[in-house]
Each structure stands twice: as C-alpha cells, then as structure tokens.
Specification:
It comes from Pseudomonas cavernae. Membrane-anchoring subunit of succinate dehydrogenase (SDH). By secondary structure, the protein is mainly α. It is built from four helices and no strands.
C-alpha cells in the first residue's frame, strides 16, 4: 500500500492543544501519586514501628531533598484534584464544547499553579 499522506514521527514538532496537555498531566500526576503513596506508607510504617524509627523519619523529612519530594507529591495531588474536579464538572454537561474545554484547561492550569506555589511556601 503506497500512501501519499505525510507522516510526522518527530513528536517534538507536533502541536497539541491545551486540553491534551492537561489530560496528559492528569494521567502523569495519577501515576506519581500511585508511586508516592508507597514511599509515604513505608515512612509511616517505619515511624510507627518504634521510637527510633520515628526519629529517623523525622530527621529524614527535615532534609531539603525530602522536602522537595513532599512538595512534588503535594503538587501532583493538587493538580490531580483540580483536574478531577474539572472532569466532574464536565460530567454534569458544563464546558463540553471546544471553547469550554479550552477555558476549563486554562483554569485548571492557573488554579493548580497558584495552589502548587502555596504548597511550596507551606512545605519550605
């Protein structure tokens, strides 16, 4: 079969709409949360096992790297929450048009950015 259609396999040159970026970020934030829960449950188990374990977790969480990880997990949680609320609103029939979807995606990105900065201030 000889197709005359152009084929673009360079993903860096493909322009996606803002709705696609918010959808992809929603999925990525879900995966980050899934993996982050395992780390947080391990820390919880260790902190509840003994007094020494609690002190170890407390000392670990005081490090800048741990604060960065916690901030990253909070960022994923906040973005996932805001994007999830957008999906619930769309399930009610609001913002299902192309323009409504674009506006909803822009609102998700803006609200998430504000919440992520506030979470960063709170963690640090």
């Amino acid at each position: 079969m000889n197709s005359q259609r152009p084929v673009n396999l360079d993903l860096r040159t493909i322009k996606l709409p803002v709705t696609a970026y918010t959808s992809i970020l929603h999925r990525i934030s879900g995966v980050i949360l899934f993996l982050g829960i395992a780390v947080l449950l391990f820390a919880l188990d260790k902190s509840l096992a003994s007094e020494e374990g609690f002190e170890q977790v407390k000392a670990c969480l005081a490090s800048p790297l741990a604060k960065l990880v916690i901030w990253g997990l909070l960022s994923a949680l906040l973005y996932h929450l805001v994007a999830g609320i957008r999906h619930l609103i769309m399930d009610m029939g609001i913002g299902e048009t192309l323009e409504g979807g674009k506006l909803g995606s822009q609102i998700v990105l803006a609200v998430s950015a504000v919440l992520i900065v506030l979470a960063g201030v709170w963690v640090w």
